[in-house]
Design brief:
Chain lengths: ~700, ~170
Amino acid sequence: MGEIASSHTSLFAMTVFGGMGFQPMRTRRWTPQDKLENRAMSQKRTSKTSETKRVNESRRDFIKTAALGAGFSALAGGAATAAAPDVPGRPIARPKPFEEISAAPVKEFAFPATGGDIFAQVCKEEGLAALFCCPGNYEIVSALANAGIPSYGGRNEGSMCSAADAFIRVTGEVAATSGTEGPGFTNMICAIAAANACRTPLLVLASNMTLRGDDTERGIQRGYQQPMTEGIKKYGKRVVTKERVHEYAGYAFRQLKTGVPGPVHLDFVSEATGRESEIASATDLDAYWGRGQYRTDSRPHPDPKDIDRALDLIKQAKRPLIVASTGVFYSKAWDALKAFAEKAQIPVAESGPMRGHFSDAHALSASAAPNAMFSVDLAILVGQYCMPGLGEYPFDINCKYIRIDPNAGDIGRNIPIDIGIVSCEKAALEALAAKSPAMNHDAWIAEVAAAREAFEKENDEHYALGKSYTDAVHPAVISTELANFLYKGKLAPEQTTIASGGFGIGRYTRRRLRAFRPGQICNGAYQYGSIGPDVGYTLGVGVAKDLGIGAQKPYQGGPVIGITGDAGFAYSAFEIETMAKYKIPGIVIVYNNNAWGTWSGYSRMPRAGHMHLFQENLRYDKIAEALGGYGEYVTSPDGFTPALERCWQIAVNERKPSVINCQAKKEFWIQRDFPPGMLGKVEPGVMAYNH
Amino acid sequence: MKQQPGNTRNDDRQVAAVRDLLHAYATRGVLREFEERSMRNSKTEYQFTWLLDRRFHLIFDPGASQLTLRDLLPGIPTNSPLDLAVREFVAARTSKQLLAHRRIDPAKATLTVSHSRSALSFVFTVKRNQYAYAVPKLLNFCNELFAFLDMYHIQYLWEHMGVPEE
Ligand SMILES: Cc1ncc(C[n+]2csc(CCOP(=O)(O)OP(=O)(O)O)c2C)c(N)n1
Ligand SMILES: [Mg+2]
């Protein structure tokens, strides 16, 4: 991944940002009616019991309320006031600038311009959807914000980088993250690596002092950044010449928007983008040409002969499976996928760092049918960028493989292929749908349906066990009741977007969470497996939903859910404050088992076990309240759903983030004492996160 | 492979049949670092690297028509909960409720578990030389067994099978 990728054509149809279509947030005008409604909602919040009652509104009422909430753009001001003050006269409150952003003018680009402004202008023309950063890299982030790109400042560059990653993974649109030279940038490394495993088209930006001072150690924070992202990016460049800023912005977007995506890391020295970098006119720039000239939206289409060969192989298969992964999402191929699957009657299981490009509610969905995976005799891997090795998808030993991927250089890696199709996923699926005869795999589809049923039954058994442990909250209770709330209650099942993270808890929640439309689930840290980015992911998912960008557009507004462990929460918990100040209503479920989930393996080592333990009964809910959010502490199974309902109501009415601190116990991972204990997974499907 | 003393021609044919079947998987890259070694009593050992990057030891005894995955699962004491769970899993592989492509048909092969030094071995007794049926069945059984362990006994894989805790 370290080298410059070959120049495959774009996977990104410019649907949302095409031409002048992009409206930066806060352009919606406030009406007096909004203010009245908003005040009314803020007055609604009284006691916890009455809040619970209000959840029993009809679904239509609820959706209306949620949509109304969405209409209040995050920073539009005038929204419900902050939490009750702990100290009289000192409420936790957003200062005035947050109320003023919407009214502030967007800076129109004109020469003479600094390198920073020129870079921002390319980003704007490319439809850069959002910026997540901490202060630093001042010229660039100011230029991006002034150009009208929705910009969010947070508490830690790593978490903000995770937020950008998650935002992209649920919208399908490019976003940026930024940090200051040296420390801000190096704080992002873990999050960039996770984005790289996810193949996220993430624009990583950082300042890098001055070229003139290189190697001197004069001042502070000097260093070479590009070697530090070696192996965790698709493309990177230190930009040192102001005349070439525009050209390198083109390099960046070419990589971000074509072929198999991945993080692009640009660092800027002050000579290129700082105050002294002024350029008088366009003719003073090298390679100054527009989007239509420096990259193409053309995409590779499949060789018709390959399509015929693939269909021949499919006709011979008894139990074919389409594995729909990352590339299906980024090429927006969900309609083509559905058309092909339905025509050829082939079940589909998802994999990848986001979920929902094939609805779990579809009769052909094999995502929640783990027991059927062993029967697969032909796997059609579509856009499977992060490749499993043989055996990681436990298909029949005689299984044949077709791979569809825009990058010919990757086809044949890890798994020997029977047919490789070099193509944009969407184009290949369209061609397959067009040429495929109607097929019949009724017996196989029945097998998949039976496997789905067996899986649900097993989840129900886990839930029954979980509820029988009454002195703490078992993960099966959280996963089941969360799913019931999201999909079987008053909400439209496709409404809520989820940052599905956590370690031990994730092994339970993944089994129950479902995706019914593209980008409904951001699949945690995915193959990188980092503990900690989850609150950052929740922020990114929440912003995506709030702005209604890309795949989130039809579902704009309303609360989002984040899931994490107690170890994981600590890394990015302060972004609760970021959610609070931007009024992003993320509900973060913290599975608090007083321990790193690794404890159980070391519990018999007196000199080592303690390293896996925390103090018991920590109050993560109070952290949320101290940061301007809302907190719930749940200590028994019957408390979870009511707490979730209260958080939801507060999210809808006050646009306030919250933490549900679920008090569990570390012993839940010990199977002999508390079956079913720590769980594993079968991939592909709902449980998948390695691939 | 040279004929060993005591080998019958029939044994040789069977050894060759099993080798060819396994070798086809090795050629395809499914089984890696494939090796074959003659043992005493006309047995042959096939070794290969496969699931979880582990080395598999498959002993073929043509006289007994047995394929044994030797010491496949270490560190499982007799009658421990995991021992019982694995045995239950094995017994369920012949259930009539399973679809034909998933079931081990007792008319063609039987599967038993044996225990030595806290390690479980799996013995496939093949009926009427039906190796073309038995070899992929055995491999598919491993596939399912490892997935079963991953799904419900991940801690065991962490502690005994070199799976990282992530
Ligand atoms: C940044 C990071 N540090 C360490 C690890 C190794 N690791 C994997 S899981 C885990 C424990 C996670 O604990 P928690 O999030 O509380 O999960 P739970 O207790 O719910 O199982 C650790 C330390 C990791 N994956 N990432
Ligand atoms: Mg924990």
